[in-house]
Amino acid sequence: MKKQIVLLAALLGGILAGNAQKKGFDYKFYGQVRTDLFYNSRSNSETVDGLFYMYPLDKVEDPNGKDLNDNGNSDFYTLYTRLGVDVTGPMLGKAKTSAKVEVDFRGSGTTYSLFRIRHVYFNLDWGKSALLVGQTWHPLYGDVAPEILNLNMGAPYQPFSRAPQIRYRFTSENFRLTAAAIWQSQYLSVGPSSNEPGATATRKHQDFIKWSSIPEVYVGVDYKRPGLIAGAGVHVSSITPRTQSETGSGTYKVDERITGISGEAHVKYTRNNWLVAAKTVLGTNLTQASTVGGYGIRSIDPVTGEQEYAPLRTSTTWVNVAYGKTWRPALFFGYLKGLGATEEVPYGTLGTGTTLDQLFTGTAELTYNRPHWKFGAEYSVCNAWYGDEFDAKAKALSSHTVLNHRLVVTAIFQF
């Protein structure tokens, strides 16, 4: 990591030094040093070895009846330290120009301590309308997200993703319209891991959106006034799980597609040190947004192995309340319910958390905030209901519970 920090510092230093030679440009350098210490009472669905925490894993019993996932775990990380630069440029016709480049050391997958692009985009602003091109927050994440210490920012209840996109916004008085075409980069859809018919082993890969040749689409509207934002949006995604199928008689070219329509509504109110925010999402195959879901196989061609699919639906809702400035206590509550597929899926399901029936998380935290500094502790309890029996649409009929207790202690220096 030391070499990478030196290289990044040299790069940003060169940019800032070049500012004296480029008229019409202005640069603002920023970043943070963040440390996270956490403890979980059992094994969980997660990435980055527990930093991006989702929900407790189901019970898996050994021959003696002991739960293999009943293991406490703890660690300490600095991987979400980040650096960035905001750029304002000269006018392009009647448009104000700006750009952002922001990176951290999170890496990807199981490769840590590497640069990772968080935000990289340019923006053209004509006043009432603006066009953003590049990678930033997915529109489903939007401008309303929980203010909590946990790095998952409320996932899997809150859609979480940064994605390449072309986003247009139009603002008129208190209303703002957002329309975006979105692709995938670091946060990916789940699909089959092989071309065999009926395969239910899964993987995440860019191929599923690339083979589709159709980006995700989001359209939403917000009502904004000082201290208040409220709005709703509709999201459509269409991916291609496979382009060929291997059967006993050979390899066949197949034409497969799974399309999902999702909707969300959100509200955020801030006044006199109070924050009250909430979001509800009816999600359809939103695995690329760090949530639970996927799709089921409803038919298989007996000759070619071509499959037809039905998306799995999930309902999520969260509420976040906080009060204060220097000392700031906060509460977060999230609830998730698996609603099953839109049609019968007799050949199995693909996705993440497809055996979950319900999920509930309650979180309490306290932060101490000073200029450039934040210190905080957060306790959360997550109860997961895993299905024992399922109907023909993969919806749980009965379930059992698994519980995880999590404690996070964080210190952040912002500059």
- Annotation field: number of helices: 2
Unreliable stretches (pLDDT < 50, length at least 5) are: none
Given helix and strand content, the structural type is: mainly beta
Query: Largest sheet, described in full?
Result: 16 strands, antiparallel, barrel
Overall geometric form: globular
Percent of residues in beta strands: over 45%
Q: What is the succession of H and E elements?
A: HEEEEEEEEEEEEHEEEEEEEEEEEEE
| Number of strand segments | 25
Strand order of the largest sheet: 1-5-6-7-8-9-10-13-14-17-18-20-21-23-24-25
- CATH domain topology: Porin
Head-to-tail CA distance between termini: 20 Å
By CATH reckoning, the class would read Mainly Beta
CATH architecture: Beta Barrel
Q: Quickly count the domains.
A: 1
> What integer is the average pLDDT?
91
CATH superfamily: Porin
- Alpha-carbon Rg, integer: 23 Å
Helix content: under 10%
